[in-house]
Amino acid sequence: MKIKVFILILLILPFKLYAVDKNPSEFDTPTQETRFSEITKVLRCVVCQNQSVADSNAELAQDVRNLVRNQILEGQTDQQITDFLVERYGDFVLYDPPLQPKTYVLWLGPLVLLLIALISLIYFIRRHAVTTATPDSLTEEERNKIKHVLGE
Q1: Predicted TM-score of the model (pTM)
Q2: Helices (DSSP H) in the chain: which residue ranges?
Q3: What's the Cα-to-Cα distance from 85 to each of 33, 44, 63, 131, rounded to whole Å?
Q4: Which of 46, 48, 54 is nearest to 21 (CA)?
């Protein structure tokens, strides 16, 4: 029984799921198809957030793919298409948003958090070293207390 389950798992694991375009249409030229592929790979699915529009199965991703396809067929440039989508969905739709005042947190946030973590780590290591340090030598009073406690 265990072997059958193991074999079944091994057979299922290699299969990957890809987004299926529900409304495929042929482009006039291979260049348009290449542009479509490149544009949809650099756009983030607003619903899925960790997938590109090309890889997402969400309905919104399908709508964005349809928008991109239609705009390519209408003769829009890549910049015009991305500008339209940024205007509609915001900078979050881009995997590589531009460095602007409203995206400073997005770009600088990880660096600030890393610096805070390093400063905290250094502080706690130094504090631990100070609080656990043993004195170089004991005073006579401390030696007498130790002898008393040990019963000598």
Answers
A1: 0.57
A2: 2-12, 30-42, 59-73, 78-89, 104-131, 140-150
A3: 19, 11, 11, 57
A4: 54
Closest CA to 89 of 57, 69, 64, 58: 64
- Angstrom CA distances, 134 to 43, 128, 129, 130, stand at 59, 12, 10, 9
State how far Cα 110 lies from the chain centre.
11
Tokens representing 113? 């958090």
**How do residues 59-117 score in pLDDT, each as one tens digit?**
888 888 989 998 988 888 989 999 998 898 888 888 777 888 887 887 888 999 999 99
Q: Which amino acid is at 63?
A: D
What is the per-residue pLDDT across 3-50, written as a single tens digit (0 to 9) for each?
Answer: 877 776 767 766 555 545 555 667 778 888 889 888 888 888 888 777
CA distance 91 to 131: 49
Distance CA 94, CA 97 (A): 5
Query: CA 138 to CA 107: how far, in whole Å?
Result: 54
CA distance from start to end of the chain? 69
